From TrEMBL:
One GO MF term: polynucleotide 5'-phosphatase activity
UniProtKB keywords: Hydrolase, mRNA processing, Nucleus
GO CC annotations on file: nucleus
Coiled coil: none
Name of this protein: mRNA 5'-phosphatase
Reaction catalysed by this enzyme: a 5'-end triphospho-ribonucleoside in mRNA + H2O = a 5'-end diphospho-ribonucleoside in mRNA + phosphate + H(+)
One GO process term, biological-process aspect: mRNA processing
Region Disordered, residue ranges: 54-73
Top enzyme category: hydrolase
Cofactors that this protein relies on: Mg(2+)
InterPro entries, per the entry: Cet1/Ctl1, CYTH-like_dom_sf, mRNA_triPase_Cet1, mRNA_triPase_Cet1_sf
Sequence similarity: Belongs to the fungal TPase family.
Domain mRNA triphosphatase Cet1-like: residue ranges: 8-111
């Protein structure tokens, strides 16, 4: 479960089924550098590309205002240099656990920092002037792997919802 505070600090808590008290796993602040929202009319999904950094943060002071609580049921996969999280989220606004709840499904695809140092790959690409054959090709390979994974996930979502985009027929699937 994640608990977000008005101070933009988020705590991740481990919740067990035995009714014990939740335990704080980490406290962090997410610094978002920017988003690119891609709307896909006629598709069962839209995309958001985000560049963010999650950094350790101090514990919120006692009595801090809770913005929301997000309880998550997550499946995680790793493929190549990517990690994929498929999550059902039950979110409660405010500090009361009995407040109005919303439910959503989220799919998050990230470049796995344990496999690839994305900062170094971007640096190599820039040093090569963006030219293939002069270094930095790995960044293009990562981008191609990311796009192929997103297309495959969109096609699966479309099949599940009965609304596959035209390019996602069995013969054209990535």
């Amino acid at each position: 479960m994640d608990v977000s505070y008005a101070s933009r600090v988020r705590q991740t808590l481990a919740v067990t089924g035995d009714g014990g008290a939740p335990k704080v796993i980490r406290t962090e602040r997410k610094v978002r550098f920017g988003d690119l929202n891609v709307l896909c009319p006629g598709w069962p999904v839209d995309f958001r590309f985000s560049a963010s950094l999650e950094e350790p943060a101090a514990e919120p002071p006692p009595g801090s205002t809770v913005r929301n609580r997000r309880e998550k049921d997550r499946l995680s996969y790793k493929s190549g240099c990517l990690s994929v999280d498929i999550t059902t989220v039950h979110m409660t606004e405010g500090s009361s656990p009995n407040g109005p709840e919303t439910m959503s499904q989220e799919v998050e695809v990230e470049v796995d920092g344990e496999v690839v140092d994305l900062h170094e790959e971007v640096k190599a690409y820039r040093e090569a002037g963006g030219r293939v054959g002069r270094g930095g090709e790995r960044l293009l390979e990562i981008a191609a792997e990311l796009v192929a994974t997103l297309r495959a996930l969109a096609a699966v979502a479309g099949e599940a919802m009965g609304t596959s985009p035209a390019w996602a027929t069995a013969e054209q699937r990535p």
